[in-house]
Amino acid sequence: MSEKNLAQAIREKMKADNKRFWAGDNISQYISPEQKDKLINEATVAFESVLDALLIDRETDPNSKGTARRLAKMYYNEIMAGRYDPAPDATAFPNDSQDRYEGMLVVRSELRSMCSHHHQPVSGVAYIGIIAAEKLIGLSKYTRIAQWCARRGTLQEELANDIAREIEKATGAKDLGVYIQAVHGCCENRGIMAHSSLTQTTVLRGAFKDDSGTKKEFFDNIKLQQEFAPR
Ligand SMILES: [Zn+2]
């Protein structure tokens, strides 16, 4: 691996462009779909080195033979896919007719993420609430956007902000709330080994923040959702 590999070339380009590439950042504009296979090959070689450093026999242990490649594919295609894939297509429909919807919309989205400190799984739910603005997007798109933000190395506090920002972009809504409830593998599997490490984060904007009635309606909706579909 002495000559420059593709990952190195991409990192250098991002540095030259002052493009931040932290674990929670999307860098899809720097990676073409064809390049992904090459990057997975490079990550496979790197994971082989990690397994070697951990003194795991990947030559005769049948369970460890393909592990480096499985890890490389899992990172690129699954647990960190939200870094490498472009934003999901969320076609917006105008909400400007006479009988436009003006109420609150609350969507419950299942989340799977990974903490950027320990690369341990984070799982939970996000409740996304908006007061319908001039655009509407399909209901499944809220969850697609939330999952795209979550499938990265995240901090729960940042994740709530990321989801709020992307939902605002897609819908134009200025009044919105994001509430996340999640359990963290890094608290359950290591460190304090707490089995019920439930963490909650809330981001409130516009009327959700300034109007106590709107805020109450949002949290009442969450309670109703939790009764209907307990986590
Ligand atoms: Zn952690």
Tell me briefly what this model is:
With 231 residues, the protein is α+β, with helices and mostly antiparallel strands.
Walkthrough of the structure:
The radius of gyration is 20 Å and the shape is globular. The protein is α+β, with helices and mostly antiparallel strands. The protein has helices at 6-16, 33-53, 67-79, 81-84, 139-150, 156-171, 185-188, 207-210, 212-228; strands spanning 92-94, 104-115, 121-131, 135-137, 153-154, 176-184, 198-205. Strand 2 and strand 3 (121-131) form a beta hairpin. It has a 5-stranded mixed beta sheet with strand order 5-2-3-6-7. The structure holds zinc ion. The site of zinc ion has 5 residues, from loops. Residues 115, 117-118, 120, 186 line the site of zinc ion.
Strand segment tally: 7
Q: What is the terminal-to-terminal distance?
A: 46 Å
Strand pairing plus helix content: what structural class?
Answer: alpha+beta
- Poorly predicted residue ranges: none
> Which ligands occur here?
zinc ion
Global morphology: globular
* Main sheet overview: 5 strands, mixed
What is the average of the pLDDT values? 92
Spatial sequence of strands, sheet with the most strands: 5-2-3-6-7
Order of helices and strands: HHHHEEEEHEHEHEHH
